[in-house]
């Protein structure tokens, strides 16, 4: 079986999952966060090299304040847990998104986590926090224009590769497979540039119920696709 090098996940459905159980939405987020840990380990054991998860979008600030607060508390705690997991699993963690809007203590924890794990040679784990693809591209454009004003680059020199180097995901290969859980069939402002040729997999399973078996199903379906630029089928035929 051909295991995708890079899997991106829109982990959706925490709230609905909890509601079905008669529990508050935040319980769903807590369970969802635990599941991220599990899937990281499972994915790495299966041979996945890069995993990028959508934890909080630029649009998620519009949720009720109590939910935003709960999500931030969860992220705060998650950063701590992740520091330990990263050490144990040799995971290299990078946070993508606009960190400037996050509380100082969360930013400090992110920096600590990125610094402590930067030389690890296990799974490359990207967490998208306050991430929106349009916002990422606008920030990239701003940085590029500043470099242009400073005489570091001219407009003629701007290529796809140069533009990419200004994105939060610079240096990370594009995802081979995108998974969205819980039945929604949209991208919700996730990795619009990077997903140009990615295979999409949608499942009705809500994120807290997304297990190793579900991941295997997604990878199996990915293997049955005829990827124009990924050559999965051809590789299998050889
Ligand atoms: C995904 O679950 C997690 C985040 C967006 C933070 P949701 O909170 O979107 O759960 P549903 O989609 O409302 O069920
Ligand atoms: C996308 O899920 C964002 C994250 C998973 C963090 P949402 O549940 O917020 O997306 P929409 O609002 O339904 O499009
Ligand atoms: Mg949702």
Architecture overview:
The structure is a single chain. Strands 3-4-2-1-5-6 form a six-stranded parallel β-sheet, sandwiched between helices. With about 240 residues, the chain is α/β, with parallel strands linked by helices. The two termini are about 15 Å apart. The relative contact order is 0.19. Helix 3 packs parallel to helix 4. It contains eight helices and six strands. It binds 3-methylbut-3-enyl trihydrogen diphosphate (2 copies) and magnesium ion. The site of one 3-methylbut-3-enyl trihydrogen diphosphate (IPE) has 12 residues, from strand 2. The site of one 3-methylbut-3-enyl trihydrogen diphosphate has 11 residues, from helix 1.
User: Helix- and strand-based class?
Assistant: alpha/beta
Number of domains: 1
Q: Please state the overall shape, judged from the principal axes of the Cα atoms.
A: globular
Bound molecules: 3-methylbut-3-enyl trihydrogen diphosphate, magnesium ion
Largest sheet: 6 strands, parallel
User: Helical amount among residues, as a percent range?
Assistant: 40-55%
Q: Average the pLDDT over all residues and give the rounded result.
A: 96
Q: Given this structure, which CATH class is correct?
A: Alpha Beta
Low confidence ranges: none
Q: Mind telling me the CATH superfamily name? A: Decaprenyl diphosphate synthase-like
**Number of helical regions:** 8
Tell me the β content.
5-15%
CATH topology name, in short, is: Undecaprenyl pyrophosphate synthetase
Number of strands: 6
Radius of gyration: 18 Å
CA-to-CA gap between the ends? 13 Å
């Amino acid at each position: 079986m051909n295991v995708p090098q890079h899997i991106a996940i829109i982990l959706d459905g925490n709230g609905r999952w909890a509601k079905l159980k008669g529990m508050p939405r935040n319980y769903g987020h807590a369970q969802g966060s635990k599941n991220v840990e599990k899937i990281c380990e499972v994915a790495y054991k299966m041979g996945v090299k890069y995993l990028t998860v959508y934890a909080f979008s630029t649009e998620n600030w519009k949720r009720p304040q109590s939910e935003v607060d709960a999500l931030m508390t969860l992220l705060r705690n998650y950063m701590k847990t992740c520091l330990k997991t990263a050490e144990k699993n040799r995971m290299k963690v990078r946070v993508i998104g606009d960190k400037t809007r996050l509380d100082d203590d969360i930013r400090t924890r992110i920096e600590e986590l990125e610094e402590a794990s930067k030389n690890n040679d296990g799974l490359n784990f990207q967490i998208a926090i306050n991430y929106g693809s349009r916002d990422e591209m606008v920030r990239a454009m701003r940085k590029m224009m500043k470099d242009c004003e400073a005489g570091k680059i001219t407009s003629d020199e701007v290529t796809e590769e140069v533009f990419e180097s200004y994105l939060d995901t610079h240096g990370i290969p594009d995802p081979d497979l995108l998974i969205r859980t819980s039945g929604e069939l949209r991208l919700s402002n996730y990795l619009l540039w990077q997903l140009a040729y990615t295979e999409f997999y949608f499942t009705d399973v809500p994120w807290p119920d997304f297990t190793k078996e579900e991941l295997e199903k997604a990878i199996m379906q990915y293997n049955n696709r005829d990827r124009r630029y990924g050559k999965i089928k051809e590789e299998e035929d050889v």
